[in-house]
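Data deposition worksheet. Section B asks for the primary sequence of the deposited chain exactly as it was used as input, without tags or linkers unless they were present during the calculation. Section C holds the resulting structure in token form. Section D is free text for depositor observations; keep each observation to a single sentence. Incomplete worksheets are returned to the depositor.
Section A, Depositor: J.P.
Section B:
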Amino acid sequence: MKTTFAILLIAFTLQLQAQDKYANTYACTKGKIHFFSSSPLEDIEATSNTAGCAFNTQTKKVFVKIQQTSFVFKDKLMQEHFNENYMESEQYPSSMLDMVIVETIDYTKDGVYDVTLKGTLEMHGVKQEREIKGKLTVKNGAPVLATAVFDVKLVDHKIKIPKAVMMNIAEMIKVDVEFVLEKYEKK
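Section C:
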């Protein structure tokens, strides 16, 4: 009898821990990531509306993943060159952000909070330690919107620019992100 009770107690405890794992998690499956590059000869920009983001308010952990091929350009040839020549999307299909919010936020108080994210940005198979400034909007006691604007140096992620198009592509890309967060419900 004691053994059966112990097994049931352990099973119940494990089930509660599994439920608690997602208790403070918010997610977005249609996050917007936009980038812009301005050079003397040409501006290049693209947008994806399919980035995934998960944020846990208890651990302060933020994880973002985006498929390279999800970026849409006005010029289809630019899109092709982006995926084949620069991002090498077959070899490096996604970029990821794995960070923690430094500040402690009181989610019972609605408002817009300046936040600092520290961790790694992985692009083109290269991880770089980064610190990114952003904003987190809290409404009705929950995070509902996360935004940030930051720069990415192509050389930091070993993205090569052929000399023939050096004047067409900037060495620094401006990235802006927007994630509308909802309470994560495990299915």
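Section D:
The chain has two helices and ten strands.
The longest strand covers residues 25-38.
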